[in-house]
Design a protein that fits this description.
The complex is a heterodimer of chains A (255) and B (461).
Chain A: H1 6-24, H2 32-52, H3 60-82, H4 84-87, H5 89-92, H6 100-128, H7 138-163, H8 167-181, H9 196-201, H10 203-215, H11 223-247, H12 251-254
Chain B: E1 4-17, H1 25-33, E2 39-52, E3 56-60, H2 67-75, E4 82-87, E5 91-95, H3 107-117, H4 122-136, H5 151-162, E6 169-173, H6 181-196, E7 200-204, H7 208-214, E8 217-222, E9 225-230, H8 232-241, H9 244-255, H10 260-263, H11 269-282, E10 292-296, H12 304-307, E11 313-318, H13 321-332, E12 340-344, E13 357-363, H14 371-384, E14 385-396, H15 401-408, H16 417-426, E15 432-437, E16 453-459
Parallel strand pairs in B: 3-7, 3-8, 5-6, 6-7, 10-11, 10-13, 11-12, 13-14
Antiparallel strand pairs in B: 1-2, 1-4, 8-9, 14-16, 15-16
Classes of the chains: A mainly alpha (255), B alpha/beta (461).
């Protein structure tokens, strides 16, 4: 895999800008929507689970918000990616350029949402009075893992979606299922021990759980766990990338 | 400079055309139960040639002969099933309409996006933007969404952007056909400039006039095979005169002979002949009792019959022996016709020997034919006409009911006013009138005014 060059970076930027304009040009609040959505979900979940159901989790507001923000990036990034190739079908069938750039561009627009939401998290964090420890630096690693997972899944589902158009609907359902199968609203401790092996196979469990431990609770997650999460992340990325590369020569025909 | 910039070696491409396209999982699962009925279309078969640096190469051939597939393979968009393509340079592809512009973005945004695809940086485009817009003549529409643009405007914008790319090789596919004459002239100036600068250009077109004018070398494709390559004059002459590959096409047309009942459903005999007379009446200004009149596509002779009452001699040609037999029967029993001759034609020739003709007319015949054939017929008409003789054609457009019923038979082409102009020019008529109007109605259509057709009248100078 050759290192990305300046022309490709330019193209990713232009593709991302055009995606962004296409997505938000006809709505009044425009971009604000994708920024508000996770916060609304956070507000509702907080009301239901903290006030009505009285979950007893320390710093539940921060716990919940971080989980929703990280999951939100996965959901938005992959949803953008799944139809990215089809929506650029006209370009694919007329001009040759590395098709990977389309998927990369589609995951970049939602990075902006992630960034803005993280700023909101920082504000909450400051007002909560929780002490920050150096362990929080690990968040950078987890965000990198998250990005690689989104990109890997993006490669996988966008290339398969060209031939199996059902996939975009199936993916929507899988995201819903994933949201509840991952400890975002509830805590790991609420899941019976015997299921933990399976829950930890889900890379999002590890990323979200370890991020919380590092940022909110000031703990360093065990190295074995971090290593495992890197392994799963790389596996997801490589599988996605290989499937994409295998299908890539046929995109123009199959579209 | 004899460096080879593109090498095509034994390239073959096969498309699988499923009878039903499977796009959803359900269709795929159901499809596993029954045998796949994919048809294999050999779009390209063992094509090999090289392109030298600085060469202007033309590719010609009928629709479906593999020209566009070949360009897409050179551009890297499609992968050949076998064979190799080696390209030693950067390519600016300019394929099909609008190069994949995003309709919901403005012209400005599209230029930046397309520019980035061609490898131009934002600052480079900033510098060239006003040139691009000026060349495309879209100054007033810079911030309009592209979906509101006409196809001609989109092509102008795409072409203006593409020529800014500093690519070694430009691939151009038939796109200029939608531009108006002024714009095409500008494009040709650009071609000339690029050719002089030593850029390599591969140009796919049906416009043989332009191919002849610009290309150093021409390749003729037929059913995915390269059947000829050489100088433009040589290959174009071969293409226009070589008949064997027309054969299948004409046979197909002749097979649909019985489509007369199909094309004119539930026709009322009396009315059918009455309409023929009405159409003949509209032509009477173009000939007199000393004239020889030729009809291309005589059918059963319903118009020619009435012209035969007034003209000295009538001649009909058709691709269908069955039609001609019926016409012969109709003419023979009609005492008022002074003299007639009927010829079968094979290929785009008018086989009338050295006869000089006063009026050549064809009404709704050419909707079966492709541009190249119509141009041949126009050239032929010019050849057989006397000085001051008239060429009279009616080209149905897509609004006419004739077009619609014929479309059912599955071999119809639609031509715009612009394309008709191009065909007239290519056929050698510089002066002609083109109007929208209509002769008598066909079949059951009564609201004649709603169904305009193009009427073209040209005089041989």
């Amino acid at each position: 895999m050759k290192i990305i060059n300046q022309k490709e970076i330019n193209l990713i930027r232009e593709l991302a800008i055009s995606d962004f304009k296409l997505k938000y040009q006809s709505s009044v609040l425009g971009y604000v929507w994708s920024f508000i959505k996770p916060l609304l979900l956070f507000g509702i979940s907080y009301l239901v689970f903290s006030i009505f159901l009285r979950f007893n989790i320390e710093h539940y507001n921060l716990y919940l918000l971080l989980g929703i923000i990280l999951w939100g990036y996965l959901a938005e990034g992959t949803t953008n990616a799944v139809n990215s190739l089809i929506s650029k079908g006209g370009l694919i069938s007329r001009v040759f350029f590395p098709r990977t750039l389309i998927v990369i561009a589609s995951t970049i627009t939602s990075l902006l949402t992630l960034l803005l939401n993280l700023i909101v998290f920082v504000v909450f964090f400051i007002f909560s009075g929780v002490q920050l420890t150096p362990a929080f630096l690990l968040l950078i690693l987890f965000l990198a893992e998250l990005y690689l997972i989104v990109l890997g899944l993006g490669f996988l589902i966008s290339s398969l979606n060209i031939k199996f158009r059902d996939l975009s609907h199936i993916w929507e359902i899988l995201l819903q299922a994933g949201f509840w199968a991952t400890p975002i609203i509830y805590s790991l401790a609420m899941i019976p021990e015997k299921y933990h092996f399976w829950v930890f196979l889900n890379p999002m469990t590890r990323i979200i759980q370890y991020s919380r431990e590092a940022v909110i609770y000031g703990q360093t997650p065990d190295l074995k766990g971090i290593f495992g999460s890197i392994l799963i992340t790389v596996a997801v990325f490589v599988v996605g990338y290989l499937v994409f590369k295998k299908r890539e020569p046929f995109f123009a025909e199959d579209l | 400079m004899i460096e080879e910039i593109i090498k095509i070696q034994n390239v073959s491409k096969i498309f699988k055309l499923p009878h039903e396209r499977r796009n959803t999982l359900k269709e795929h699962f159901l499809g596993m139960l029954k045998r796949s009925q994919a048809e294999r279309l050999k779009a390209l078969q063992e094509v090999s040639f090289n392109v030298k640096k600085g060469e202007f190469l033309g590719i010609i051939g009928r629709n479906g002969s593999g020209k566009s597939t070949l360009l897409k393979i050179i551009a890297g968009i499609l992968k050949p099933n076998s064979g190799r393509v080696i390209v030693n340079g950067t390519i600016a592809p300019f394929l099909e309409l609008g190069v994949g512009f995003q309709g919901d973005l403005s012209a400005r945004d599209n230029v930046y996006l397309y520019g980035a695809i061609l490898g131009l940086s934002r600052s480079t485009i900033d510098g060239k933007f006003s040139d691009i817009i000026k060349f495309a003549e879209l100054e007033r529409f810079v911030d309009q969404k592209l979906k509101n643009f006409s196809s001609g405007m989109q092509v102008r914008l795409a072409f203006a952007t593409a020529i800014q790319a500093e690519a070694d090789i430009l691939l151009v596919d038939e796109v200029l056909a939608v531009g108006d004459l002024d714009f095409r002239k500008k494009c040709y100036d650009v071609f000339k400039r690029l050719r002089d600068e030593g850029k390599t250009i591969i140009f796919v077109s049906h416009d043989l006039f332009t191919v002849n004018k610009f290309c150093h070398r021409v390749i003729l494709l037929e059913s995915g095979k390269m059947v000829r390559q050489g100088t433009p004059a040589e290959v174009i002459e071969f293409y226009q005169s070589h008949k064997s590959y027309y054969q299948m096409y004409w046979n197909e047309l002749a097979r649909s002979d019985n489509s007369i009942n199909y094309i004119l459903p539930n026709r009322n005999e009396e009315r059918f002949w009455l309409e023929g007379r009405q159409e003949a009446d509209k032509l009477k200004d173009f000939y007199d009792s000393n004239s020889i009149v030729l009809e291309i596509g005589v059918g059963v002779g319903r118009i020619l019959k009435y012209i035969g009452y007034r003209a000295k001699k009538i001649i009909g040609i058709d691709v269908s022996q069955e039609y001609l037999n019926q016409a012969r029967v109709n003419f023979k029993k009609d005492r008022q016709i002074k003299s007639f001759e009927l010829f079968i034609t094979n290929g785009c020739r008018i086989p009338v020997g050295d006869k000089q003709i006063n009026l050549v007319y064809s009404i709704n015949t050419f909707l079966h034919l492709q541009k190249i054939d119509i141009i041949s017929y126009i050239q032929e008409a010019k050849r057989v006409l006397i000085k001051d003789g008239t060429l009279y054609m009616v080209m149905p457009n897509e609004l006419s009911d004739y077009y619609k019923t014929s479309e059912l038979a599955g071999f119809t082409h639609r031509y715009s006013q612009q394309e008709i102009k191009e065909m007239m020019m290519a056929g050698g008529f510089n002066k002609y009138k083109i109007s929208r109007g209509r002769l008598a109605g066909y079949a059951d259509s009564l609201e004649l005014d709603d169904l305009p057709e193009y009427i073209i009248i040209a005089k041989k100078e």
